[in-house]
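BUG: 3D viewer hangs when loading the predicted structure for this chain

Environment: internal workstation, default settings.
Expected: structure renders.
Actual: progress bar stalls at 90%.

Input used:
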Amino acid sequence: DFFLYQWAFAIAAAGITSGSIAERTQFSAYLIYSSFLTGFVYPIVSHWFWSGDGWAAAGRNVGESLLFGSGVIDFAGSGVVHMVGGIAGLWGALIEGPRVGRFDHAGRAVALRGHSASLVVLGTFLLWFGWYGFNP
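Structure tokens produced before the viewer hung:
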């Protein structure tokens, strides 16, 4: 039960990052990255914050935490999940560089083609439904 809960958070961290490297990374590279992020990086960072003996845990004795002596209270995992996903996404975007075809040879921005409004609405409803299923 707890394993599946943490697994869902780890997958969410990998999913946050996927938006920052979309259309620039091969699928096999994304699978390798996701395996590394969810198997090694996320468990270590979540231990730092959520474990009673983690260096940033609020449950440590007063004065022992390295974060101004108080530790971190992370409500519902939002801080750890979004921090891991956001930092990994930032590094991924910096390593990958801009999207191919986004800028011309002079460095000016090229307008992107239109997108499917139907797929945007479908994606919105899927996310909405998922949040109502996950959050309660």
